[in-house]
């Protein structure tokens, strides 16, 4: 089935505004890497999605609210991973597109949509590149750590037998020193002997010299071994320092990743708070719309009452007109009687009296009509002023709320 055509009543197409292709039957949610999910959706939901979109397109776009878009956003996400988690994000994205369409129309909306898609693609690409770089850095660091640990193990394995050899050489040297001391003691003891034992003493001295030379050789070898051990220990210390530095780098990278996760959570919380504020403002607008409807109903009631008063006044005027007709008939009867009389002066007096009476009655009726109309006009003007003042206040509050919604959505 092809995408829906624009609705003729309000000239807008939800598929174009929300960038929807109803032929696609995959999830519109985003994974942790910022890539679209594309899990297959249930085929039975296709008819329901099309029905909701067509019903939304038949409404005035300025009257559509976030709660009207939530069912569509829910059905466009997969039940396994994203439904129930990204419903509000997807609905707010559609609602922002609709608000921009309402504010600027279809021509500027297309440019904004293309720019927005380009920005989103750039942000997604940069985020993917950063994530790939971080993963590669972490892999290199872990490989270096494993390599350094293997080197340390090898060095430790080499150092242990050298330490054991050093201890053996030291024990031998101690034993040779003990034997040399014993020989010196024997020489001192044999110095007091006779000349017959001088040869033996000379042999013992030569043996002691030989032992001293061997002890010197062992000492030199021990010093060399100690130097080698010190060099190996320095290398081990250098490698341990390098490992510590690498661990600190890894710790710093982990802290940076944690900070980025915290900033993302903070941004999500801000978006959620802004969404709550928008919903509360929408509820306030609904309440104020209800108040305006109540005021309009009160105005209609007052107008109905005023029309009832006018009808009553018209009835009274008709009654007074009938009375005037009756009075005119009486006056005509009087005139007919006066015609019978012979004297013209009496006729003139009666006519003057009748005319005076008629004028007096007409003036009294006009005065009462004028007073009643003035009273009704005063009550209507006071009620209209109060209603106009209330409507002005409500319009000011609505404008303030619209400005706040515009800044909140930015």
Q: What gyration radius follows from the Cα positions, in whole Å?
A: 55 Å
Mean pLDDT: 77
Total E-strand runs = 0
Secondary-structure element series: HHHHHH
Q: In total, how many domains does the architecture comprise?
A: 3
So how many helices?
Answer: 6
Major beta sheet summary: none
Describe the structure.
The two termini are 36 Å apart. This protein has 410 residues and is an all-alpha fold. It contains 6 helices and no strands. It is 83% helix and 0% strand. The longest helix is centred in the middle third of the chain and has 143 residues, at 198-340. It folds into 3 domains: 14-131, no CATH class; 133-266; 279-409, Orthogonal Bundle (Helix Hairpins), CATH 1.10.287. Residues 1-9 have low confidence and may be disordered. Helix 2 (45-57) packs antiparallel against helix 3.
Write the layout of secondary structure elements.
Blueprint: H1 14-17, H2 45-57, H3 66-75, H4 87-190, H5 198-340, H6 344-409
Helix pairs in contact: 2-3, 3-4, 4-5, 5-6
Q: TL;DR?
A:
This protein is mainly alpha-helical and 410 residues long. Helices cover 83% and strands 0% of the residues. It is built from six helices and no strands.
What are the main properties of this structure?
83% helix; single chain; 3 domains; mainly alpha; 6 helices; Helix Hairpins; disordered N terminus; 410 residues; rod-shaped
